[in-house]
Amino acid sequence: MIRASGLEKRYGRKRVLSGVDLVVPSGGFAIVTGSNGSGKTTLLRLLVGLARPTRGELSVDVGRSGLGYLAHEPLVYRELSAVENLDLFGRLYRVPERRERIGMLLERFSLWDARHERVATYSRGMTQRLALCRTLLHDPKLVVLDEPYSALDADGAALLDRELESLAGERTLVVSTHDPARLTDLATSSLALG
Question: What is the pTM (predicted TM-score) of this model?
Answer without folding.
Answer: 0.95
